[in-house]
Each structure stands twice: as structure tokens, then as C-alpha cells.
Amino acid sequence: MNTMENDFSATRRLILKGAGALTLIGLGIVPLDVTKALAAANDKYPEEAFKQKSDADVIKTLYGKTAEPSEKVKMDAPEIAENGAVVPVSVTTTLADVTSIAFLVSENPNVLIAKYNIPAGTLPSVANRIKMAKTSNVTVLVEAGGKLYSAAKEVKVTVGGCGG
Amino acid sequence: MTIRRRDFLTLAGAATLSASLPRLARGADNAGVYDLERFGNARILHITDTHAQLRPVFFREPSVNLGVGPMQGNPPHLVGRAFLDRFGIRPDSADAYAFTCVEFEKAAGRFGKLGGFAHLKTLIDRLRSEVSSGRSLLLDGGDLWQGTGLANTMQGADMVDAANLLGIEAMTGHWEFTYGETVLRANLERFKGEFLAQNVYLTEEAAFNDAKAFDPASGRVFKPSIIKEIGGHRVAIIGQAFPYVPIAHPKRFTPDWKFGIRDEELQKLVDAHRNNDKVDAVILLSHNGMDVDLKLASRVTGIDVILGGHTHDAVPQPIAVTNAAGVTLVTNAGSNGKFLAVLDLELGKGKVKDVRYRLLPVFSELLRPDPAMQALIDKIREPQAALLNDKVGVADRLLYRRGNFSGSMDQLICDALLGELNVEIALSPGFRWGTTALAGQPLTMEDVLAQTAVTYPETYVQTMTGGQIKDVLEDICDNLFNADPYYQQGGDMVRVGGLHYTCTPAESVGKRISDLKLDNGRKLEAGKRYKVAGWASVNEQTGAPIWDVVVRHLRSGKPPNRSPPGVTLKGVEGNPGIAGHV
């Protein structure tokens, strides 16, 4: 019956699961020179996208095109989070030529959680844990063959309280 | 207790339902209450949510059990007369007394208590002896080990003995988990049946540290299912534990385990039983709650029957749910040992050809208690009998708990919190277990513990802002009335003392609760801090256990507070889930 602590730290806690050859560029604490190196090695660090406050603005900034919901994007997230500080959200897809996967939490102070670049030949499967401020829609974006696809689900963050 | 046997003998026989045939008329006026028409080649008996009530109880069914959206007006969200009409039960009958709150006090005097494990044992043995040996099964849907002072002190060990003697062959769990892993495993070690749960997994950390699991490869902590041979046919029984254990209860009891509904994993399991094991029937023994089961039945294919519990809905007939591959029947078998469900199946090769289902009220006055079970109960209870029998007060009015928003028993608990802990506002959890006391009945320690016996009974006093209080009410209300059952937790609304509010169940989260006021009529201010007391917090607390606070209150001799509960409902006109007022 107690309220949950809503302390939302600026640093997102991201845990990469599995040993896939994934490139994580979503960490807001990457030092500048590494950012530059990353930018040189890959596409540019999406600094602007991480500042956006709505799904639409993130998608616009990150991809510049609209996402189309797809049943081929299989997202796994709990209906009600057991712990709002570490909500497991994962995605796999049967779409071909996946180039990136991104996670969005609409109600978080900064909507974009992470964007993973998927090198050719890598299984498009990402699992991470997300810190959620409160109940929110969680959206997964999959960029494949130059197009953008999505799946979404509401994840409830509750103060608890029981029943039967 | 004056008992008129004739009242029982005219009891309408039990509801009969076939997935393929229209419902048969009720009414077996000349048959004994428990003389069932023989049907099929396999009999599955199901009890659920007995909440450790070893002895017969009074239990008033709710007068408020609202459904919103597509759930409005559909079982289980029917109460009182609407319930009787929907299921063709004669008012004034023994069935009406068992299944609804209609004229509860009058009927309680006439038909007496229900349940009790010695009475259940007699009925179960009789129904099993009617079919040939090896043609029946006894299943328990969980919440077997919690709900009494005895079970709480013995950490469920008493109920393992009772379950073994009763002959329970498989069970799943909910409150069982609140004793923690060590106690749970020690109890299961002694349990002669199987504990089944397809939806409990090791956390990644626990798996990495090689924590104990039934199947380390998948991380499944418990055996998910068993296949039972019944008269040459194979029946798969899959267990579905309460999906929200670490959310509804303190996470510290189950730090290594994660739960969830997990219908994709369930579908894989059903498919494997169908395709690889070539079973003839698949039964889900579920502690999801009825609304969750109804949704699950529409999504997961290949399950013949979901034997459900958790929401304590006594539903006389199964609800048939159509899905992509056929029909799944969904049941819910009440609580507190009041009912025994009888599922008779006509099994064929690879399929269930036909079904009969009856939810039998266990009228204690009509059943001779089984001597062996009675002896066991007496033996288990004896060391604590003096403490449990201690008279701590008298029921000044009908005291019950069940209902979406309030119950007179919870008002009493809130009054105790307000008076004894000197606060402005009291909060008490909306549990659905807890027996009923008739007006004038002495209240014993056992009665108080039947409302309060949990493994985290500590009270707390803290200050909260008006905004925080509203957020808590909104949050809990959404657990009850979210339009999507998968987001519900199956409990009732938190009970409040010292506080008044208006609730609009059909609204969305954040908009259901309005017009919050204190007892003195002052508006609750969002930014102002208030002194609040409560108990059963998911966070660790250090206050006196709630039962001590309630006993202190009862012994203080303070005049009872009979003011109506401070909840006003909006938008529920015409909803058959409410009879009378809150």
C-alpha cells in the first residue's frame, strides 16, 4: 500500500543479454571521444533523438519516416512489471535485412531507451531491461530493408496491492 | 441450528452444461442433493481457494462484483437476483443461499455453515467411489495453505497433512508462495501430490547462480504439467500459478522467481501434449482469476477445460469460449471450501466428446464428517485451541468482507487502525478471503485471524500527501477495473477509513477517483500531508501485527462505528454486478 519511489535517475541501466554482435550506441554517458569514434565507425550518435519527448519526435529524428505495425515483430514484455526499475523487454523478428532495432517508452522523461545497430549476418534478437518511471506504452522499432516496422504493448508499473 | 432437510431435498440438482448441447434443465427434486446422474468415463473433482478453512464456515457472497466494458453483465459479474435469474436458481432455495448474498442472514440460520475438510472428505470419497477405481482425479487450484491463524503459525504444514488425507493429486499456488522458497519446498517435500506451475521461472540472476529448478534448461522452477491415465485415456493437467505473486505480495518472499501469464509458453506446452504425447484431453488448473482465464481461453487453443480460481467466483456453469481451434470451457469454483466442482468427461480418442459440470455447495449439515479427517483436524488444532478459542468480542452486526469496495469486517479493521494508531486515514487491503460472522456471534481470536493471517501482517503509520493517496487509490482501482483482464490482479479495492471518495469504474486510470474528503467533510488537498495507517504493505514494516491492533480495538469497548462506507459509485446504474449499495 506504500507508494513506489519514483526516483528516476538520469542514467539508464541497460543490460545486454546474450553474446550477439550488437552495437550499443544508446548509452547517454559515452565519453565524447568514443562518441566521435563511434560516429566515424558507424552512423552518427543520435544525440538529438535521445532528447526527444514523444514517440513521434523520436521516430522522426531517428528515422525520418513513419513506422508500420507488423506481426513479424515479436515483442516480449510483461503486462505488469514485477520491478519498474528493471523491466525485461525483448524482441525478435522474422523480417529480412534488419539494420537496426530501437526501444521507446512513451512516458519516460526521455522516450528513446536504446537503438541497436544490427550488422549484416546477425540474428535480429535483442533483450534488454528498461527502467520505467510509470505505466507506459513500450514500442519496438525494427528497421528492415529500408522500411520501418513496429510493435507496442502497454506495461503497467503498479504500487502493488493484492487480492484473492 | 434448526435445519429443515426438506429445504435441501428440493434443491435444484446442479447446473449441467455440455459444450455441444444446449443446457439441460435443472431440477432433480426427488434425488438426494448429492445423487448425481452418472455420465462419462472420467471424473475430475476440483476445489480451489479453500484458504485453509478446515472447519465449516459462513461466507457471504458479494453484493458488489462489478464488471466493466465487455465484462459488464457477464459471469462472474452478476450478483443477487441477477445471478439467480442468469443461472435459473430459485430464490429462497439452498442454492440461492450458497451462491448469492440474497437474504443471507435469514438463510444462514436455515441452511447453516458450508465446507469443512471433514465434510469435503466425505463428499469427495462418495463421488470418487461412484466411479470405478482409477477413473477419478482430485485437483486443488491453490490458496490451500493460507487464510487461518493455524495455517499461518504452521506455515501451511497443517494443510499439507489435510491435503494428503483428502487425496489431492495435483495443485498449483498463490499464497503458498508467501511462505518463501524454503518453507514452500519443505511442504512440497511432504505433499503426496504434484505441485504444477508452467508460469514460474528463475530470474536470470538466479539461473546464472544455478538456483534450483525443475528444468534448468528452460528455467522452469516447477513441473509444468502431468499426464494422468484415466480408464485408458490420457489427460494432461497443466498448472497455472497466480501470475502476479511478486507484485501483489512482498518481492522478498520470491526473490529468485519471476511469474507472469505467459500464454505463449502455455500454447507450446499444450501443443506438445497434443502433438507429441497424443493426450485425449488438456485441463488447465488455473489460479489466474476468471476474467484472465476467459481472455486466455480466447487466445490459447487446445485446452478443453480451464478449472479456475483466485477471484473466488462461484459460477454454477462453465462459460464456453470460442477460439481459433474450437471451444474452451472456463469455470471458477468459489472459495473457503464452500464448493466442490465435479467435471464428468466422456473421453474419446484424442478428444473430449462431451462434458457435464456441477458446482456442488458443500452443506456441512448434510454431510457426516469423515472421522479420520475430523481426528486429524482436532489433532492439528489442539495445541493452539486455547489461543484460537479466546473470545475477544462480539459481532455487533453481520461482519463480512467480500465486495469490490467495502465490507463491514474491513470497516471494523479500519476503525481499529484509526482508533488504536491515532491517524486520520486508514487503508486495509481488499482481500477476497475472510469468513463471515453473524450478528451477535462471539468473535474469537480464530475469527480475527481468519481476516488477517498473512506472513506480512505488520501495521505502519506514515504521512502521505493527498496526491499520493489519490494515486494509490487510482492504481489499485485499475488493478480491479482495467478494461483488459491481463492487467487486473484479481483483488478488490483497498478499503478506506476516515476517507470518502467517488469512484467511476468505467473510467480510465487517473480518472476513476474523485471528490476525496475526510470524515470531517474537508476536501483532501493534493499537497497537504496526512497521517495514514495500514497493514500488509509490500514494503517491509515494523508495526504491531494487525490482529493485535484489531483485538485491542475490540477489547477497548469503544462503541461500534456503523456509518456507511465512504464510497459513492458513478456510472453503475443498471449494472447487474451491484445489488443495493456499496
UniProtKB/TrEMBL annotation, chain A:
It comes from the Bacteria. Residues 60-162 form the Ig-like SoxY domain. It holds the Pfam family SoxY. NCBIfam families: SoxY_true_GGCGG. This is Thiosulfate oxidation carrier protein SoxY. It comes from Bradyrhizobium archetypum.
UniProtKB/TrEMBL annotation, chain B:
Keywords: Hydrolase, Nucleotide-binding, Signal. The gene is soxB. Residues 557-582 are annotated as: Disordered. This is Thiosulfohydrolase SoxB. GO terms for molecular function: hydrolase activity; nucleotide binding. CDD domains: MPP_SoxB_N (cd07411). It comes from the Bacteria. GO terms for biological process: nucleotide catabolic process. InterPro entries: 5'-Nucleotdase_C, 5'-Nucleotdase_C_sf, 5_nucleotidase/apyrase, Calcineurin-like_PHP, Metallo-depent_PP-like, SoxB_N, TAT_signal, Thiosulf_SoxB. GO terms for cellular component: outer membrane-bounded periplasmic space. Residues 43-313 form the Calcineurin-like phosphoesterase domain. Residues 407-535 form the 5'-Nucleotidase C-terminal domain. Belongs to the 5'-nucleotidase family.
